[in-house]
Every structure is written in C-alpha cells, then in structure tokens.
UniProtKB/TrEMBL annotation, chains A, B, C, D:
EC number: 3.5.2.9
Organism encoding this protein: Palaeococcus pacificus DY20341
Role played: Catalyzes the cleavage of 5-oxoproline to form L-glutamate coupled to the hydrolysis of ATP to ADP and inorganic phosphate.
InterPro entries from the UniProt entry: Glyco_hydro/deAcase_b/a-brl, LamB/YcsF/PxpA-like
Protein name listed in UniProt: 5-oxoprolinase subunit A
Transmembrane parts of this sequence: none
Record GO terms (molecular function): 5-oxoprolinase (ATP-hydrolyzing) activity; ATP binding
Keywords assigned: ATP-binding, Hydrolase, Nucleotide-binding
GO terms classed as biological process: carbohydrate metabolic process
Subunit and interaction comment: Forms a complex composed of PxpA, PxpB and PxpC.
Length: 255, 255, 255, 255
C-alpha cells in the first residue's frame, strides 16, 4: 500500500515570504511549485526547485489564474483556449527551472479557484488538460479524487493521480465542503490522521452528513504554512507509516 | 555568403494589437518572440509560434525586463541572479509553445533596454548568459555585433550570432547611436540596403562620424510594425539576394 | 428633451494604442476614462483628461477588474469589500488627473464584465456603490437603464444616470443580449439611429423577440474605436439633434 | 524643540503580510502609506488609513516605481513626464482612502529607489515635484535632509520636510551610505538614540569617516517590520521625550 504526500510550495513573491518550505519538504514526496501567476517569482521558483532536489522531492507545476492580488483564489471566466495556453505558459516556465537543476517535471496540479472550477466546467477542464498534453503526455495530472476531469484526462492519454485532502470535510458527492461553511476545515490532528488512513486503506471517508464517500487516494494534500500545519503533516506521515503505508512520489504510484 | 533576417514579433497583448506579424513573417528567417514580460501573452505566443511554423521561420525567445508599461525599453537595475532566473523563466515559457507546435527553439535575443544594458554591464551579461546556458547550451545567443557579451558567451560554450541593425546609425565603437540623437534612425530605403550589403559583404559600415566600423553580420534586425517598415524589409531581402547573399536561418550560419 | 452621449476612452496602455479618442471627443458630452486596471496608464489618463478639457467634455471614472490581459471583460468573483475598495482606488487615481487639469469629476461607470456583473449580484453592486459614496456622494453613478443597482444607488443618496446602448439588442427584461448570440450587435446606421430616437423620445425600444422594453435614456453609450463606429456616432448625434433632442452632459440631465 | 517620527506602512499585498503596522502606529506621528505600485493594495490601504486614524497618526502617500516584484528597490529610468504622472496617480489613489475616512492627506514621501534617485537626477526630481504640485500645493514633500530636491520643492512653492534616518550611516555629503557597504546600517539601540538626538538638537551627526555632517531633522524615519525594530523605535521616542523634544506630526513643524 502506497501513497504520495503533496504540498503547495514556492508561494513567496519578491520581498514577501510565505510558507515554511524548508521544513515541509522533509515530510512530503511531491512539491507543487507556483509558477509566478498567482504566487511565486523566478528567484523563488529556482530556490524551491533546488530545495526539492536536495530533499529528493519530486517537482510538479502548480499553475493558477493570473491574479496575484487574489492569490489565485478568485474564480475568473476563461475560455478553453485561454486556459490551454495559460497552463502551457506556466508549465514551460517551471520546466525551465527543473531542467536547469537536472530534474524531471513529474506532475501538474492546478491551483486554488482554478482547481475547483475544473470540476464543474468541462470546457475549462478540457483547456487545462490540452495545455498539459501539449507540453508532454507523460506529465501526471493531479485532480480532485473521483472527479470528472481525471476521467477526461485518461481518455486523452494522460496519466492521473486522485488527490484527497487531509484536513477538509467532504460532501457526499466527493466535492469539498466550501471553506465558507462551518466544519469545512478539520483541525484535530488525531481525526485528520484517522480520516487519511481511512481514505488510503478503506477507499473512502465519512462525508459531512455521515454518509460514506468512496474516494481514491493516490496523493494526499498536506500543508506547511505554519508550525501547527507542519506538526499535522509530520503526524500524518508517521501514522501512515505505522499502518504500513509506504510514502512514495506519485510517479511510483501512477504508471 | 549567407545571412539571417530576424524580427521582433508577438508583441501584441490581450486586446492590444501591435505589428504586422503575418506580413513580416514572409521575409524573415528568424522570429524573436516576446515572452509575456515586456509584451506578448500566452495566446499571442501560441499564435506567433504557429505563424512561424507555417512560414518555416525559426523561433527564438525574446525575453525582456518585467515592464509591460514601458515595453521593456526602460533600464532597470537587476542583480546577476535576477537576470539569470528572469531569462530562464521566459525561455521556458516560450519553449512550451515551440514544444507544443513541434518546433526546436533556435535562439535567445534579449529585448530593448536589457539588450543594450548587457553590452555595458558584465555582471548583468553573465546573469543573462547563465540563464540561457541553464536551459540549453545549444541555444544561440544573439547579441550586438562584436560586443563583449558575445565573447563571454563563447567562453561559456554557447553558440553566438552577431547582430547588425539595418536602419540604425553606429558609433565608431560599434554601439548604436542613441535614439534620442539626430540621425540615429535611417529612413532612406536605398541607403539602408547599401549599408546592409556593406555590413554583410565588406564586414563593416560607416559610423555616424564617417569612420569605418568593423562588424560581423550573422543576422540583420528588420522591422514589420508598419507598412513602410515592411516595404524596407522586403527591399533589403531583394537587394541582398540580388547580391548573391543567401537568406538562411541563424542555425545554418552559426554552427 | 435632452440626452448625454458617453464613450469609453483612454484605453491605450504604454506603447499600445486603442481608440480614436481625438475624433470621438468631438461628438460626445461625457468621457468614461479607464483607470489603469483593465486599460489605461497614468500618461494616457493625463492625455485623455486634457483632451476632454479641450473639447469641453465631462469626465467620469471607468473602473474595472484588475485584469489588463483580459481587458476587464472576464468575470471575477470579488467580495463586497474588494469591490468597494477597488472602485475607491480607481476613482481616486482618476480624480488626481481631473484635479490637476482643473476639472470636476462628473460620474462613475463600471467597465465591461464588472458593469454586467453588478446587475445580477446585489452584494457586488453594494460594494461598488459604497466605493463611489465613500469618495463623494455628488458623483453620478451610470448603470444599465432600469436595472436594480440604479435603484440601490438612489436609496443610498447617490445621483444616477440610466444608460442605454445604441448598437446593442435588448432582451425583454431590459438586459443586453449576450455578444455571443446572433443579432446581439446592430450594425445598420439607420436602424441604430431609429432605435436611439425611440429610446430617448418614446422611453423604450423593441426587444430581440419583438416585445416592447421600457427604458429610461439619460445617456447613450457610443463608440469611437474605428472609423465605422465614429461615423455611426456622428450620425446618431446628427439625427438626435434633428429630432430636437439636446445633447448635454449627464450633470445637466441628472440633478 | 519638535520632531516628527515617520514610518513606511501598508506594505502588505493580497495574502502577503509585511510589517507590524498595528504596533508601530503607537510610536509614530506620520505614516507613509504604500499606494499599490511597489507594495500595498486597496484593502491594505483602507485598513492602514483606518489604523492611522484610530491612532491619531497623520497620513502621507508613499509612491514608488511600478515594480512589485522588486519592492520598488530597483532603479528604473523614468522620464520627467512619467515620474510626474506616476506620482499623481498614486497620490490620487491614496487620497481616496483618506477622503473616505475623513482625513486630510499630509505629505508625500517617495519610496525606495525612487527616493534615492531623486537626489541625483534633477529631471526626475522635477517630475516628482510637479506630480505633487499638480495634486495640491499644500502637500508637504518629504525628502533626504539638505538634498537638492527640497530646495527645488520650495522654489516651486511646496512645503518641505527634511528627513533623517535613525539607523543609517551618512556620507560626509549628507547622502546615506549604500546598504551594500559595511557599517551602512546601525544596530545598536543606544548609538541610534544618541545619533538621533544629535541630529535633532545639534543639527548634525558624525559621518562614517568621522567628519561632521550638518543635517536638518524635521522628521525621523523609523521602522516597525520586526520586534527588534519596534523596540528601537519605542526607545528613540522615549529618549527624545526625555531630552525635552516634542514628538508631533510634520504639519506642526513645517508651516
């Protein structure tokens, strides 16, 4: 039994610092690196890719909306062609840093509002997937577990990884409970660990209404933006390993 | 006897259109494509790379300062590390579009104020050249004919192309006469053609003070932003061919 | 009988030129000047305000989404607080130029996708109106004729101008037919003039399905981005004057 | 004997937080608020102006280069017209927030590389000062103590405040020792306090080479971006008050 731990990194910008990247790198197997549109800049990208290399962590592109002021968390209407080429641009930009550091780009995980918009908008999803396929069909697309875009990606010949969220409540249909609703984010370390183990070993978890949601867990999204998040991440890793789950990068899970 | 004709293209942005790219593509052998920092956006980059492909024109990256408002024509102090990673980012972004269209990225030519700043600032030049080498040592660096950065690039194992300007007056030291000075830009079609032929066949041209400047002409910068510029470009090409000069892409000149 | 003619101006940016501002100024009474977020920059704003002054045209702010790449034509989710302060920022920026040129800022008309989003989203509308009221309650809010935000603005003590569109088809509910649908934009000069006269004199126009839509026409949106648009604008003005309608700025209509 | 304490605030952006604004507000009398170009955004500007109001602190505009990625700390060539209108834009933007909160804008202090560039470039200085005068001649221009732009400002009819830096070493000509040189920044609390007292009471301070530099101290720049800086700021204030120096806003010093 194997699972990947991924985290969003490289989100600093210019003089602005965000995230405990040096710390969280020790616990994860895949890093989603911001590409300069919603966060990150070339110096940060270089530094983050180097850091991943030193920690033997796989690197993926984390493209987002062109919205630094909103950190890519605000929905924007994009046409399929815009989505396709915005994704392509950002993948290429990050690829340059992995190439410079002698690494292979492993995956692509859209960021924030774009990640969520994909699930509901097939045209947008198609644009994003075309952007990935345009660059390299060997890139792994990371999307919301059991969601439609993963199926579309497979139909296009892309490899996919089903992603689950360690600290988020689920609706019965497998979507995440909106952050605006009560109970959307889970803070209890023990509960988080139990849910993660359930998702990995039992193929599902209890939804916010108590129903069972079937999920596939190729990779688990964890955080490292503050000491508490870091502690939870370390604990998740420890508990999974105690349960005999191997923590390996996505490319060793998805083939 | 061979020479390349290059032009700066893909400079439109969003709803803003600039340049007669479709027209000028017919006369040139190498296109310098803006990478979204001083001009260009992902849709424009895609379209421009496609257009180059259709016209059998080689594609190069045309990275600039992060200054859309100033069109990359204003000097900015950058550290070597900033220059290195800013260039790397932009090359990667454009590379994605050449990859998507099945083309090989041929060269890198810095834009505007950055192009000029390189000639005088060795640290900056080193940063830019490191950014190119980080990505791929087979990329050809296009710089001001006989300038120091070309020598530095060769020492680093990069291939280089010496660039001359069809419509610009030269100082006796081989630098361009500043646009702010009288006589900096030459408008007479016939004179332009004669100067270009002199640069290609005689290895030099008369400077603004009448002295002879030795130059090497691997590639000639031509324009296509208005009908007059286009006419001059077509005329330069015709006259060079009449003189028995073959117009071929940089990669067939620089080996 | 009086009506204002307004047009979106100052949409150039850096080296990018858009619109025949010098020409269209001759026919209009109110200019909506872009504030640097979706279009425009400080040099363009200064020039446009000066041009308005020379032509005795009233100036209003034309704030938009922070989306230069999309020209403010793409919907973005904004909170009420974001909308309020984004509007306030842009009004202030433009105000500086009117102050420098000795003019009084007359009105505020949101741009593009923001203009349309207001009509459907009360929270967003409230944010935008609060931004206007925060700056100066004497500013006139220009919105889609008979739409809800105009009513909300009046309840807040703002003055309002009902805007109609010369060349756009209407739905029976008074909203504009989406540009993506056939027949959304009207190109026939004569038809446009007749519809405008109907809106001003008869207080309504035929909707796309043939039904009568009641509208209030304080100000008519006209264009000047190309010679054809300019010709239509001149013709509208001529025809209105022949009908005895006086063309005066919004402030002489709304009191 | 009176002096103002000023600090650069409102430098957060979007999700990025910078500075202990809430804390430093307690010790200062004038706040220089970033205007969204090198730092700050409309939500941050609103919050910062409110905070200043609550703390009875005067507000000034802190305009900078259009360079968020470089935090306005990189030199850029601007023409006089660009400088004039860039400053005007940013003053207007901030003015909107002071107007919304019922405050009077007190001063303008250029930021970072622009602040320093002014001292050496008369054309640039003229542009900046024209931008201020265009908006309101009652605004106080804050510049490097005894520098040329202050003289120019007075000749133009602007009020001026001579600024000194609490923690920076001076060259014998009154300019600041470059941050890149050893000894440029002073860290010892006691030494800082003594130097500040010397500048305020004795009209000068020892330069880095031991020579005496005559300075005028209308306002002292202090910091609050980390707990140590805050402690120094509190200590400076305490020591000045013990020496009988009154800490009052610029407008009570400059008349």
């Amino acid at each position: 039994m194997k699972v990947d731990l991924n985290s969003d990194l490289g989100e600093s910008f210019g003089r602005y610092k965000l995230g405990l990247d040096e710390e969280v790198m020790k616990y994860i197997t895949s890093a989603n690196v911001a590409c300069g549109w919603h966060a990150g800049d070339p110096l940060v990208m270089r530094k983050t890719v180097k850091l991943a290399k030193e920690n033997n962590v796989q690197v993926g592109a984390h493209p987002g909306y062109p919205d630094l002021m909103g950190f890519g968390r605000r929905f924007m209407t994009l046409t399929r062609e815009e989505a396709r080429n915005y994704i392509l641009y950002q993948i290429g930009a990050l690829y340059a840093f992995t190439k410079a550091e002698g690494l292979i780009l492993q995956h692509v995980k859209p960021h924030g509002a774009l990640y969520n918009a994909l699930v509901k908008d097939e045209e947008l999803a198609r644009g994003v997937l075309e952007g990935i396929a345009d660059f390299d069909k060997r890139l792994i697309f990371v999307g919301l577990s059991t969601s439609k875009p993963l199926e579309m990606a497979e139909d296009m010949g892309l490899k996919v990884a089903h992603e689950v969220f360690a600290d988020r409540a689920y609706n019965p249909d497998g979507t995440l409970v909106s952050r605006r609703l009560k109970g959307a984010v889970i803070h209890d370390k023990e509960l988080i660990a139990e849910r993660v183990i359930s998702m990995v070993k039992d193929g599902g978890v209890k939804a916010i209404n108590g129903e069972w949601v079937e999920l596939k867990a190729d990779t688990i999204c964890v955080h490292g933006d503050n000491p508490k998040a870091l502690e939870i991440t370390a604990y998740i890793r420890k508990r999974l390993e105690e349960e005999g789950v191997k923590i390996v990068p996505i490319k060793e899970i998805v083939r």
